[in-house]
Amino acid sequence: MNLILMGAPGAGKGTHAKDIVARFDIPHISTGDILREEVAKGTELGTTAKSYMEAGKLLPDDIIIEIIKKRLQEDDCRNGFLFDGFPRTIVQAEMLDKIADIEAVIYLKCDDDILLKRLTGRRMTEDGKIYNIYFDPPPENVKVYQRDDDNEETIRERLKIFYDTFSPIMDFYEGKGAFYEIKGDDAREKVFDTILTILNIM
Ligand code: ADP
Question: Which residue, 18, 165, 174, 191, is the most exposed by fewest CB within 10 angstroms?
């Protein structure tokens, strides 16, 4: 199953991606996570990525496309994959179209005020557990950190870029009959149920 999860920053792509890949035994490929790993390792790619990410800007398409081509050659992709944070531009979507058939693009639609609170309030632990100081505060003894790009100025830029680039990508997949919009601000279980319903009718 070849799937794409779309949504503005803070829409919950990472959370729902975990539920989907656990059910379907496909890898969760997040370009944001791949880039953050490169930044943490201090590679050349990481150094380039860091400046774009800190400004909330997208990396150049050719860099992202190289990353994806390499990742799709790995063994775990033979039964499919779930993309999160890719494609982010129409150029990326067109490139992907040449190398894979996408069965469903699920768009998690959320209100902007919820997105802002989710992002400004987001805190995570080293092992990836996500808390939110407004909705789900971390216990006092748990050490949390904030993503470098989760500050209000960068968040506004990330949201703006998302909305600027979203429509052509949506049109592209709608044209292929593969686009499904769902309400992303419902409870986690409800969102997952809706996703399962979509995937079962495909
Ligand atoms: P979010 O969706 O919360 O903004 P991501 O983790 O998906 O976060 O991405 C973080 C940053 O990584 C983006 O702001 C951008 O700089 C970079 N990035 C991730 N995926 C892509 C992509 N497909 N194309 C270009 N830049 C990307």
Answer: 174
Query: Nearest residue CA, atom 12 of ligand 1?
Result: 32
pTM: 0.91
CATH number for 18: 3.40.50.300
- Residue 179's DSSP bridge partners are 105
Asked if the structure places residue 50 within a domain, the reply is no
Q: Is 195 in the pocket of ligand 1 (CB under 6 A)?
A: no
Q: Tell me the residue range of the domain where 178 lies.
A: 2-26+79-111+164-200
CA–centroid distance, 140 to ligand 1, in Å, is: 30
What is the C-alpha to C-alpha distance for residues 164 and 186, in angstroms, rounded to an integer? 25
Residue 85 CA, closest ligand 1 atom number: 7
Please report whether residue 9 resides in a domain.
yes
Residue with tokens 């909330």: 56
